[in-house]
Structure formats: structure tokens, C-alpha cells
Amino acid sequence: MPEELGQVEAVVVGGGAAGLSLAHCLTRSGTRAVTVVEAPDGPLRPAERTWCYWDDGPGEFDEAVVASWTRLRITAADGESITCDPTPLRYRMLRSGSFEELVRSRLAQYPTARILRATAHDVCDVGGGAEVHCTAAEGHPLTVRGRNVFDSRPLRRLPPARTTLLQHFRGWFVHTAAACFDPDVADLMDFRVPQPARGLAFGYVLPLAPDRALVEYTEFSRTPLSTAAYETALRHYTDDVLRLGPFRVETAEQGVIPMTDARFPRRTGQAVFRIGAAGGATRPATGYTFAAVQRQSRAIAAALRDGGEPAPRPHGRRALAMDAVVLRALDTGRIDGPRFFTDLFRRTPTERLLRFLDGGSTPWEEFGIGLRTPVIPMLRTAAELPFLRRRTPSPSEELHR
After folding, report:
1. How far apart, in whole angstroms, are the C-alpha atoms of residue 256 and residue 151?
2. Domains along the chain with CATH numbers
């Protein structure tokens, strides 16, 4: 017989950014008992990852911030660079290991919070809540019950969508022989790389010191590349574009982020809810997720505290509608991706544009930003979207655990 634990107020499945952020917010808001079901060490635990976001003033997780930048740079395909000052915002970088260690240490201060090392298999409704069927780290079956269960595990496949692109990348943490980087400036998009037939590609540089940086090659396209292809693209970017000279690669990271206008179910049972990327927290047109996860976590905690519905939208309807137009326009080739993003940063005050990309702009600001895009192709795309059928993603578009 499986071991059964007593019911708690909330069970959070997954100990990544979404799961730990929600557990952190729930305990701070006064939720009586919270259990995080976190996979034991092994193949189900993802490799260390980098998360970036922009914020103003002191942040909730500043202790885990590796670096931050006061200026952002966009470089056009022809080499013209635009350096932006996003004041009062700063662009911040977290490493998943430091973030998880920080949040776990905070949860340990609450006697009602518990982290359980187990592999979750099934989540289902039961009378008075929901239960999670697990295998404990020691190997025996285990059932965890909660009044509400919040599941952050990655989806095996994306929901049907009109447009699906993937943001896929590989990055090197490099240590150069000479001082090559300005630690105050982050290169958000450098389009001096070969472009794919559909979508776009760019370099991404986050300096950590004059001789150290995370250098990434990123594509927005329909299918990921092989590791060898990413390595070739990175070698071209570091050698021929950045001209870094001698350097060594200290570590590497690689990933795939969905960019889609799919409708993500936020509720999958009477007491079962999806959170994080699996609940639609990834911004479709940019791939940014971390800031939306924080908003979603705070909203869920407030809803539980006040007796409301704990399934808030990570992004507003207007933002999702605009993103659907951008994705379709990129995928059809109606807009030139590098020129589109370069012109947005060239023609729009940076702080306003970043708030727009984060879903915090007003309708009037969005109208003004829209006028700075290729109006005719965007209007044509917006007009056709209601008539397009949502399709199930092809095998090449499946999400990888």
C-alpha cells in the first residue's frame, strides 16, 4: 500500500522557478501548510539554467542575482548599434541554482512549509481537494493530498495553435584572454548572424566581467538545431563577429522555449491548476517567463488568501492578441524580424517598450508602439487570424523534458 500523507492547504508539483516562487508567495501570504513535491537528483531534474528579467528598485530575489545591467544594446544586421538606457529598470540575471538555494532556505524558516523529494506521476481530483501519486526518493509509492494542487511540470506537447515558433539557443560562458566586454552593457539582440529562412536569429551577450560573459546564439524558428549546428553558429559569432580572440568555454547551456498563440489550460481539474510555462506564463512574442511567473504566484497567493479563484491569467488578453499577430507575421515572412525589433528599440523609449514587452503598458501606449511597426503587414495579419484553424503541433514542435 502506498504511504499517504495528511492533507495540506496547497501542494506544488515541481521545484523550479514556478513551483518555488509560488511556494514562497504562499507561505509569506499566510497559507497554512504547503508541500513542494520536487524530483530527486537524477534525469528528471533539469540542468542549471539562466533566467533574465527587468525590474525597478530592490527585488525579491536580489541575493541570487548574478549580474545586472543599466544599459541595453541592439545591433542591426548592418552593424548599426542602438544603446538604450532603461532607467528606472535594470536588466537582471539569475542562475537557477542560486535562486533555488535561496528560496529553499527561506521556506525552511516556515514550520508549515515542506519540500518532499519524490517523482510525481499522476495528479487527480478527490473529495475535498486533489492528490498527487508519487514515488519517494527511497523507492516506495507515496500519495500527497492537498486542498489545491498546482502543477508546474512541463507539458509533453504544446496545445493546438495557429502559430508555433520555438526560441531555441545554446550559450557559452566564456573567459577571454583579453578584456572584451563592457560589464555595464548587455547585448540583447545582435543581428549580425546569418538569418534562417523563417523567423530570425541573433547573438546575445551578458557580460559578467571585462573578460567573462554568457554568449548565446538564439533562433526564433519552427525547429531546433543539432548541438553541432549551435556550436558552429557560436564559433562564427565569437570569432568572426565579436572577434574575442583566445578564450575558453567554462560551461554551456542549451534550451528550447515555446513561442505560441496556443491556449494553455490554467485549470485541469476541480482542484488542480497549471502554473509557470505549462500554465501559459511564457510571453509568446519574446519567450520571457520569469517576471510573469512572479506575477502569477502573487496573484494565486492573494486569491487563496481572499477566497478567490486561484487561476489568474499570466498575460492580459490585449498582450496575447498582439503577440499572436507578431508571431504570425514573423512566421509568414511578412515582416523582417531583425528590422522589426531594431526599429522598435530605435523608435520607442526603452522603459516604455520594456513595460510593453512585460505586459504593463496602457492601450494608448500600445497604439503608439503599433504605429512604429510595419502597419500594412500587421493589419493584414490581424485580419486573417480569426479565420485560421488551430492545429496540433507536429512532432518536431514537441516539447522536450
Report:
1. 20
2. 3-49+95-156+264-306 (3.50.50.60)
